[in-house]
């Protein structure tokens, strides 16, 4: 008999399994213990997991993420916007439960689904970390020239935190933007299945215009820290290119929804499934890296990418003029120069487009992403200086149970393709419970998280997972 017991700041959850299992587990392949990454992607991962030096990751660093949020920072601090994760004996657990208004985004759900699949394919070591699911890695984790890091809750140092986008001065460890890679109907994985169809559109028949589509909001580093080669601050590309379009509509086509709606016009939708019909695609960052850039690499068009300060886990492996053409690099109007260059160097533009697709198909497919997550977690585990245990945490719920809940809960049931993973592994996972047996308890926990969880008390009763 297996009992799942978790107490969250005085709220106790007991799920009892009082009858024998009715699901007989099928044979499963042996979990993998190794895989290979692109050398540049591996290099970044190895360098960033060494940031703790000889001190390693002590429990106080992880505990700092479990402390209640100060009232003044409850809206922005990592203890609200991060999902805490614990892995023990190959089983993944969530060690905090999000309020219902905090877990609906695919940025969180997609990573949880992908992490669970990783745990079923690879042998994961014991480790503990947090996953930041907002647009930017927490600004609190800032590096300094002397090699030290700032974290606003002394005496704690830099906690182990994963994120899908960051700038160099932030201490988070990069993981794939799994939500965009696998959850929506126009996800990377969905478009990967359409590569053959898109490849049947001849290069010569593509419209020789630069197309971009975005909402107008911009990263913090434009109009300030990001400088171009001419020494000037880079303007916000999404705003500037929309304005530039009016005088250069013969070569540049944008669909900035904010501009069109405020001016009374209606933006003509062009789905990602059809944007391969343009020879040139313009990629711009929003509040962080663009979730469309990964997908653009697949479309077989030349990508004009606006330079920025944030990056994703695979960016170091990309090379300008081999996989894409940089813009907003030399001066604010260099996009026009690059479009002209592409038109007069058509064969080279086509070669770059093909190289981008080849890179994405080799290094961003699902198998490659799972490999990356496995390798990152493996390296992170080498930094752990304490014994990871559910007994140390007030909540410790198997991730498979959280995914079963998310797959049924009305606010999240359509947010990702849960059955791709649950259908393979989840419904007879020996670390879980029979289908939906814990649903009502988890639903109550998510919907009724009391305010004292966010604001105090500092000490919480501890949960235990008994086998």
TrEMBL record:
GO molecular function list: transferase activity
Pfam families on file: Glyco_transf_90 (PF05686)
Name of the protein described by the UniProt record: Glycosyl transferase CAP10 domain-containing protein
Chain ranges of the Glycosyl transferase CAP10 domain: 123-387
PANTHER family, per database record: KDEL LYS-ASP-GLU-LEU CONTAINING - RELATED, PROTEIN O-GLUCOSYLTRANSFERASE 1
Leader sequence residues: 1-25
Family: Belongs to the glycosyltransferase 90 family.
Keywords: Signal, Transferase
Xref: InterPro entries: CAP10, O-Glucosyltr/Glycosyltrsf_90
Keyword Transferase among record annotations: yes
Domain of life according to the entry: Eukaryota
């Amino acid at each position: 008999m297996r009992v799942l017991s978790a107490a969250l700041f005085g709220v106790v959850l007991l799920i009892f399994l009082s009858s024998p299992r009715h699901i007989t587990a099928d044979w499963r392949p042996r979990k993998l213990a190794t895989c290979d990454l692109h050398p540049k992607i591996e290099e970044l991962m190895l360098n960033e997991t060494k940031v703790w030096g000889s001190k390693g990751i002590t429990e106080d660093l992880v505990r700092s993420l479990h402390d209640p949020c100060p009232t003044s920072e409850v809206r922005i601090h990592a203890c609200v916007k991060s999902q805490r994760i614990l892995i023990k004996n190959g089983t993944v657990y969530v060690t905090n439960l999000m309020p219902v208004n905090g877990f609906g985004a695919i940025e969180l759900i997609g990573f949880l689904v992908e992490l669970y699949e990783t745990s079923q394919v690879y042998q994961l070591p014991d480790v503990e970390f947090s996953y930041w699911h907002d647009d930017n890695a927490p600004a609190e984790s800032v590096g300094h020239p002397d090699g030290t890091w700032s974290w606003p809750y002394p005496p704690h140092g830099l906690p182990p935190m994963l994120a899908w986008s960051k700038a160099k001065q932030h201490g988070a460890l990069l993981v794939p933007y799994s939500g965009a890679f696998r959850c929506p109907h126009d996800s990377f994985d969905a478009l990967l299945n359409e590569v053959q169809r898109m490849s049947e559109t001849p290069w010569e028949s593509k419209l020789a215009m630069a197309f971009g589509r975005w909402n107008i909001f911009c990263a913090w580093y434009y109009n300030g820290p990001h400088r171009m080669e001419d020494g000037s601050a880079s303007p916000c590309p999404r705003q500037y290119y929309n304005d530039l379009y009016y005088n250069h509509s013969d070569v540049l086509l944008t669909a900035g929804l904010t501009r069109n709606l405020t001016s009374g016009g209606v933006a003509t939708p062009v789905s990602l499934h059809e944007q391969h019909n343009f020879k040139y695609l313009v990629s711009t960052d929003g509040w962080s890296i663009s979730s469309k850039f990964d997908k653009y690499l697949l479309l077989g068009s030349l990508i004009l990418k606006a330079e920025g300060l944030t990056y994703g886990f695979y960016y170091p492996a990309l090379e300008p003029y081999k996989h894409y053409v940089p813009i907003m690099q030399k001066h604010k109007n260099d996009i026009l120069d690059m479009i002209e260059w592409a038109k007069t160097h058509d064969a080279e533009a086509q070669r770059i487009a093909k190289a981008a697709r080849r890179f994405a198909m080799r290094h961003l497919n699902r198998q490659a992403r799972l490999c990356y997550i496995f390798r990152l977690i493996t390296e992170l585990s080498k930094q752990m200086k304490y014994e990871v245990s559910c007994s140390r945490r007030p909540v410790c719920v198997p991730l498979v149970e959280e995914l079963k809940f998310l797959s049924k809960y009305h606010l999240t049931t359509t947010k990702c393709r849960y059955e791709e993973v649950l259908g393979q592994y989840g419904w007879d996972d020996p670390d879980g419970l029979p289908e939906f047996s814990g649903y009502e308890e988890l639903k109550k926990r998510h919907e009724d998280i009391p305010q004292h969880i966010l604001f105090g008390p500092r000490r919480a009763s501890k949960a235990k997972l008994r086998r």
